[in-house]
Amino acid sequence: MTAFLLGRLAQAALVMLVMSVLVFLGVYAIGNPIDVLIDPAATQAMRAAIIRQYGLDLPLWQQYGHFLGNVLRGDFGNSFVFRIPVLPLILSRLPATLELTVLALLIAAAFGIPLGIWAGYRPEARSSRAIMALSTLGFSVPTFWIGLLLILFFTVELRWLPSGGRGPVGWLGLSIWTREGWTHLLLPALNLSLFKLGLLIRLVRAGTEEVMGSEHVRFARAQGLPERQVVGLHVLKNIGIPIVTIFGLEFGSTLAFAVVTETVFNWPGMGKLVIESITSLDRPVMVAYLILVVLLFVAINLFVELTYGLLDPRVRAR
Amino acid sequence: MNRRQFLSATTAAALSPASLALAQGSAQGAGGRTLTVGVRSGPESIDPHWSTLGGHIEALRHVYDSLVAQDENLVLRPGLATSWRAVDDTTWEFKLREGVTFHDGSPFTAEDVKFSLERIPQVTGPMSMTLYTKRAKSAEVVDPLTVRFVTDGPAPTLPNDFTRLMIVPRKIGAAPRNEEFNSGAAAIGTGPFRFTRWEPRGDLVMERFDGWWALKDGATQPWARVIRREIPNDAARIAALKSGQVDMINYVPATDVASLQRDPTMEVVVGDSVYVFNVYFTLAEKLPRLAKVDGREIEANPFRDPRVRQAMDLAIDRRALARVVFEGLAKPMSQLMPDSFFGASPNLPERRPDLARARALMAEAGYPRGFEIDFHSTSNRLPGDSALCEALAQQWSRIGVKANPNAVTGTVFFPASTRGDYSLQMSGWGTLTGEAAYTYGAMIHGPDPSVGLGNFNRSGYSNPEVNKLLLDGSRTLDDAKRREMFARAAEISMNDRPMLPIVMPQTVWAMGRNKLSFTPRVDQETLAQLVTPKGA
What we know:
The complex is a heterodimer. Chain A is mainly α. In chain A, 76% of the residues lie in helices and 0% in strands. Chain A is globular. Chain B is of the alpha+beta class. In chain B, 30% of the residues lie in helices and 22% in strands. Chain B contains 17 helices and 24 strands. Chains A and B meet through helix 2, helix 3, helix 8 and helix 13 of A and helix 1, helix 7, helix 8 and helix 14 of B.
């Protein structure tokens, strides 16, 4: 187990290294960040001084070397735009994105798994066809468009919910402690969950259909077990592994790239921060963010793999 | 104070005991009104000396005052300085306002002005504020209310530059940087509002400062609390207004203006701006991206022929562009800044299209069948930029110039433009200081690092006569003479056509109908001190 964990950590370190090199090369390929950051009216002398001040006159490998040296000392540097340390800047946005993502996944799971099982259990029923049509909509209609429709309907027309922003923040930097916070959270979470909902319904349905025809289900039925137990226990357990895998991946990618939803709903999360950093070529924020994302994915994958063991005794035996 | 505001007030209060006292104070005060503004962009720090960015300056004008103020048309007005005069060629003397106090109660004096000026080079960021202070070599305190600046040669635009010089108290010392300002510890100004809290790309919350000096002069200050909510997405900003989340918004896109005007609960305010879209020809011997005639690349640069530039100018129907691309919310331009600005020429009439003459000029220049060229512009810098790029390409196709429109994000555009990668390009430029030296010195003077001019000259244009006018003009203290020189430089250069001014997009604000009065400013600043509730 220790060897396994160490292997994973080494892998993660390597991916993070490659990622940071890619970001440096990518920004370098676009051009000098100074040309985006600087006042266009700045004189030639001012421009040269600022380039020197930010070390952007050095060859790229030296800039990268400085960066790497600082990271090894735990310093990810300061944002070009805000001149405040990037790590606290990014982490201050984590709670906002975290609560949004978790709620979106919970919504997707709470509706997606039962609906998917039903659609797989009675594939010919009219209700199942309706569920499948819904799932197609869920992941084929663009998120930003649904987001705007949700705002138009619930906010502008009905005036039930706020159009964006985040409610008051309380303990742990989360906004789920007040009713106000929930009214802000609901629409973006719903918007974010639709794609996952569609995906989950399809996944669960396909798994259920397959498992329903398998021998152990037939045995279970022959044994005279009630249908509820057959589906709720034997079927669900057998479709568990792909669901957990997809869940993990989706959790990671949503946490890292909830950009569209965060933009439309003006949700002050990490996605919004990083997209704004990209448009201003704020390299320190971009690099630190993507390194954190790699770390996140590695952690989630690890967690997912450990979960397999809980779900499937055969994995544990290995 | 509604529930949401109350809750956010209590959150802020929980963060610092000082703001707790403030919140209680304002709750007891007479006018408990809150103004919530949905803005496209916000500050990058609470340090007023960190950045020259428009959104940064605008936000911090609530907390700090500048030495010199500008009215809504950018004409200079007394600010923290009540008067100024050039003592000799290289010395300016500013008389300061009496009885001004900072938010912490300490008096404002000449020492604070000297401290602020000297602090800027140490703390400013990549959007360097030294742009506006570099002419002042030193500051000397004559008496508590008089300060003198020694400049590196005659600096007639020093008062214009000092509309960006915001004053912080000397007693904060040399140490504070962005973090100390963002936390509020060093965020002490003389402005109409005290800083309460802010987070990068988040809300900026401020409370009324009852000791603001302008109140004594009859200014009103109806808002107990101002929240500037940063909502960069246009659709989200409009939704926030329509749902009542914010009281007013800035930068309404032209395409949404009609629907807001039809809405009986909404009201829009339209104002002129200082921004002009300009097309830049690259005049170098060899174009970075070669022109093509009949599909084959040619070595010659067609833009070096003035007839080609004139023909392309005559092919542009500016009124049609304003009508179609900007839904009527733009004005045709024939020089680089509005006619009312200092140094604008009265002799540059509106440019009307003339296709027959344009085609004749193309034939004379040796391009009867036109040519093909790549045309680049920004896609996200100013509203309408990418649509304007495509529309211009269409208009040029009428005289055989096949411009391939290529609107790219500013992240790509500006580095490439600085590298000189573009043959034909368009971007916007704002004359933020309200006078010609800022714009013509940067874009029209030949590139010359030794005098710091031509620093944004994208065409490579350099006309000795114009250069002389601009350089002499930048060193002439006599206003009338200087105005004449810049107007002359504008006339010559605009008729040489190294670049073509196209249109000035107007700025649109929106708010609930009959709720607020607001006077638009040409620098597009949305200042809470200029917003008043209707019927109050």
